[in-house]
Amino acid sequence: MLHLRVVCPSGNTDSVIDLLRTDPGIAHLVVVRDVAIQPRGDVVEAAIARESAENVLDQLTDLGVVGSGEISLDNIDTLLSRTAEDVEAAAPGQPADAVIWDELVATTGEESRLNGIFLAFLTLACLLAAVGVLTDSAITIVGAMVVSPDFGPLAALAVAAIGGRRDLATRAGIALGVGYPFAVLVTVVLAVLGRVGGIFDPTELGQLRTASFIYHIGPYSIIIALLAGAAGMLALTSEKSGTLIGVFISVTTVPAAGFAALAAVAGHWTHCGEALLQLLINLAGITLAGILTLFIRRARVLPHSSRSAEPSGSEPG
């Protein structure tokens, strides 16, 4: 169940109440009159089944609440209520199958912002991957995969493609287009310093065993990227966040970037090109699979939605 809060002018309150009263996915409807200051009006709260949230958000938006007030949704970690259990059972569909489009846009929009934190995590992941390559340590390479924040922009590209959100696509493209070159450049600089200091021996790249998969391109590179992209989008849209860790570990994005930086410093241009191609294949495969998965997921809920794929709410902050 989710916690729904609506802040609206008093003139909209009765319409909001009537809408929520008739929805089978609503429990514990609460109305507090004349408590809102900006806008001056009322606050309406309720517990709502996840599978009903998208349809309710559609109708509240159609009432004009977004333009004059606020609609917010929060997860309820613990809810002890027989009424809520009955409501959730009566709501159409299953909670895991529900796609809340506005929530998805807000989540991917925030995770695809190019900022210092994004650059720091991507650079650290790239450096960890480089260390994992030099030490031929699978554990370190896996750690780099988990640290990398690149799935956020890739998911945002999929959401943008289905929802027609050019602004979201631009944001995600900038994050990837600037983030990866920056991370690789920092890794190159530090690799050069490591070579000068005797820490990095270029001949070590020709003796790899565990890390050799990073630049070996084959049909499985595409298959893994597609499967990981589908799993990632399913996890994102069903709030199975734990599954995302497995997605991060399964794809060769950051490890390929780290290896490409080392190969460039060592002058192994063939391996550098193969690693960069591996990176592009994985990024493209994850995005394509995310688009197809989201298209199928979105198509299943469209009959219950009054809006088009593009939400009419404001751009997430």
Task: Sum this structure up briefly.
Pfam families: DUF389. With 317 residues, the chain is α+β, with helices and mostly antiparallel strands.
Summary tags:
2 domains, Alpha-Beta Plaits, 317 residues, elongated, 13 helices, alpha+beta, four-stranded antiparallel beta sheet
Any overview of this molecule?
- The chain has 317 residues and is α+β, with helices and mostly antiparallel strands.
- The two termini are 24 Å apart.
- It is built from 13 helices and 4 strands.
- It folds into 2 domains: 94 residues, Alpha-Beta Plaits (2-Layer Sandwich), CATH 3.30.70.120; 202 residues.
- 63% of the residues lie in helices and 11% in strands.
- The protein has a 4-stranded antiparallel β-sheet with strand order 2-3-1-4.
So what's the oligomer here?
single chain
What is the domain total for the residues?
2
- Helix and strand run: EHEEHHEHHHHHHHHHH
Query: In one word, what is the shape?
Result: elongated
How far is the first residue's CA from the last residue's CA? Answer: 24 Å
Q: How many strand elements?
A: 4
- Arithmetic mean pLDDT: 84
How many helices in DSSP terms? Answer: 13
Largest sheet: 4 strands, antiparallel
Query: Which stretches are low in confidence, meaning pLDDT under 50 for 5 or more residues running?
Result: 303-317
What is the beta-strand fraction? 5-15%
| Rg measurement, Å | 23 Å
With strands numbered from the N-terminus, the spatial order across the biggest sheet is: 2-3-1-4
Q: Give the helix level as a range of percent.
A: 55-70%
| Class computed from helices, strands and strand pairing | alpha+beta
Pfam family, one: DUF389
Transmembrane segments: 117-135, 141-162, 174-193, 213-236, 243-269, 275-296
Protein name: DUF389 domain-containing protein
InterPro entries: DUF389
